[in-house]
């Protein structure tokens, strides 16, 4: 019996590598993609069997076209995981416009196009699953991370609408909305003077990539549209955004709450802010 095939973006390290290991253990064959060929090779070397590897830049039309064509080709992809992401802090006024575009390209535009290609192929087969790694910043905005927040808010809306379209055809759509995950992306963000302490509000410590991958596997199995980590933070975000007047006071409270944990996290890594 052939093994189901999963495609993971951003598979070169961090959560992507942990997902590759977890999915292989669960019986999947893998198609891995990342902008770094070297990082893809490291992930492949950690696996028990050789995956299919595609080096692609999600900001480039050629990279997206290559991946969309693979999603439409045989053997069919039964699971798409939109994992690749970028989060570089900075105020809107001080940010380069190209950086705003890069957040939208990687965090929103690429998942939209890849999910569209996957949906078309899965509708033909009558089966499949599309899953995106989002963020609690898709429920609650982060100061000095407006482009990141916008991309994740947009991704949440896209996945919810796609779920409504595909659920009647037996195709599952879902997403994970975690707080901080201890990856190089988080470390780089926290070393930046405008890295948000909200990554630490409500959590004793960031989740490891392996812990996060475990939650992804559970979410894939139960087929829920949204999984919030922690659930309490997701509920709080929903409540605050129902009454936007609460946003300022709640944000200031959470920012103050997260500062001590943020400082302790940076100290544990030996990272000094710029």
From TrEMBL:
Keyword Oxidoreductase set for record: yes
Pfam family, one: adh_short
Keywords from the named record: Oxidoreductase
Gene3D superfamilies in the record: NAD(P)-binding Rossmann-like Domain
InterPro entries recorded: NAD(P)-bd_dom_sf, Sc_DH/Rdtase_CS, SDR_fam
Keyword Oxidoreductase: yes
GO CC term, one of those recorded: membrane
Similarity remark: Belongs to the short-chain dehydrogenases/reductases (SDR) family.
Protein's recorded name: Short-chain dehydrogenase/reductase SDR
Organism of provenance: Tepidicaulis marinus
